[in-house]
Amino acid sequence: HRTPAAMAGCASLSFPATQRLGGGTGSLAESREGRAAASLLEARYGGIHEDEAATVRLELIAACIMRASPELPQGCRCQLLDTSARNAFSLPGRVYLTKALYEDLDDTDLLAAALAHELAHLAHEDSLKPQCASDGEALEREMSADIAAARILRSSGFDETAMRELILLVGSEQPDDWARRRVQRLEASAP
User: 108-123 vs 52-68: helix axis angle to the nearest 10?
Assistant: First the structure.
């Protein structure tokens, strides 16, 4: 039984590297594993929140980001989870924002930052890696996704400073001092 790692403002489900999900070599078993992981995540966070307008908005923003960044996985589905928790998650082929986080991000650039961050986790294949062994390792994955997301935002025409704003917005959802450390690393990596 695998559970999302509690990370700063987002989390990716982690799986052993030998267990490729919904992408890998494309086997039927891998596809079933990806669907099973998605089902577990969706069940844990209240199921899919059916809001066609919000889903279309997320998918349009994600498509713009993916078009401008060919290194990102293409064709990811975006969905809202029906929970009051503020978080985002990624699994191969899927990006989830919680309804509460979506409602807090009333700005297109902030939504783009959340999506770019999750797409960066997918590009780094974080959901295919073993679960983080320590908070320090989890923080490093988050900071790596932050830096990649800022670059992705810049290349796709969104405001890259939205990544900093997003980190601060979800600061209360993160372990102590993570928001400050993430922003500090993000600013140090800025061109």
Answer: 60
Residues 6+ apart with CB under 8 A from 73: 23, 66, 92, 93, 119, 122, 123
- 91 C-beta neighbours (distance < 10 Å), count: 27
The rounded distance, in Å, linking the Cα atoms of 7 and 9 is: 6
> Which residues of the chain are under the pLDDT cut of 50?
1-27, 30
Q: Which residues pair with 78 in a beta bridge?
A: 95
Which residue in 96, 106, 91 sits closest to 165, CA to CA? 106
What strands, in cross-sheet order, belong to the sheet with 94-98? 11-12, 88-91, 94-98, 77-81
The pLDDT tens digits for 141-180 are: 999 999 999 999 999 999 999 999 999 999 999 999 999 9
**CA angle (113, 182, 105) in 5-degree steps:** 30
**160's tokens:** 């890259």
pLDDT tens-digit readout, 95-109:
999 999 999 998 999
Which candidate, 94, 92, 126, places its Cα nearest to that of 8?
A: 126
Instruction: Read off the pTM.
Output: 0.84
Whole-angstrom distance, CA of residue 138 vs CA of residue 153: 22
How many DSSP H helices and E strands does the chain contain?
A: 7, 4
